[in-house]
Sequence to fold (372 residues):
Amino acid sequence: MAEKTERSKAGRQRFFMGERDQWTENVLGSWLLSLKSMPEIALLREIAAAFSLERSPEESTLLPGGLIHETWRVAHPGQGAFVFQRFNEGVFPDPGAVQSNVSQIARHLPGYPLQFLQDKRGAIFYRASDGALWRVSPFLKEGEIRSVLRDGASATAAGAALGEFQARLLDFPSSQLSVTLSDFHDTPQRWQTLWRAHRLANHSLREQGAALLARLERHPSLVTQLQDQLTAGEVPLRVTHNDPKLSNLLFLQNEPEVLCLLDWDTLMPGYSVHDFGDFARSLVGAALREGSDPTSLYRAAEEGYRQNADFLFPCESRSLLLAAKTLAFELATRFLTDFLQGNAYFQVRYATENLERAGQQLEVLDFLESLH
Fold:
């Protein structure tokens, strides 16, 4: 049994280490290609003026890692740096709803480190001359995004930060927020969408995705189990982040503490455990990829989350590990669906990247299944 476990562990590390090498190559390639779409200085000046930044920007640097939007760090002399983000309306077809949600929560959390500038009309989105929507926020130079956590203290702090964020929004009526992405964590619906995409895909795509689809089919209970438990427990919808993956947590540099949660576009009514599950599966995935200890990191993160999530119903509290498994399963389903649909949703660097991402989430799921 021990030999089998070691072989399994080594296999996971080879899988993710190989993925990391490929990721490095493709980030470099993506960066070189992105130079063609780097915003012209005149466009940056237009956007800066719209948000009442007094001086013209000096330089811009692409911030890698986003799967949806395009983001740049833009330096302004005498005013520090700002984050300029080109909003993807293909993914979020109702930017007005996103703007309303983000603005309401920003007002509800005065002093929260993540803030958004308003243009001269009082809006956080500006339609620029390139036809795209842009928004601007101060660049938090004291913060850093971590691709992996190496110690339990950071994992505990990350879990605690997520629980605190949810707790601070308990008194905000979730019904006041718009649903910006329908059925976002509706796992049964995601499963049906995958099979519909499979039926409509061409023969080549179906053949390439067949092995992963077969692996997903080995987990039929994950399609409905979490949703059934939440429904049976009469768990209320609360304000949830819906995308609190590790890369959406900003840590204080050289410290375990979390400064804030980033990327509020998916703020909407939802189930709190979905947030924990998404955070936990991303934490575990990074640990597997980078050779950290996923077991101790998961345990520390769950402990930190529970410290501030005393609002959970008993059925939610019992479902945290199930939520992590379900979100890994769901994301694998989404990546495979997008591959079968021609990579229409997630940004990709090469044609089979979503296929590989689906496989990585299944590796995460396999590991989570080993926890008790």
Remarks:
- Residues 1-36 have pLDDT under 50 and may be disordered.
- The two ends are 17 Å apart (CA to CA).
- The first helix runs from residue 2 to 34.
- The CA atoms of residues 281 and 324 lie 5 Å apart.
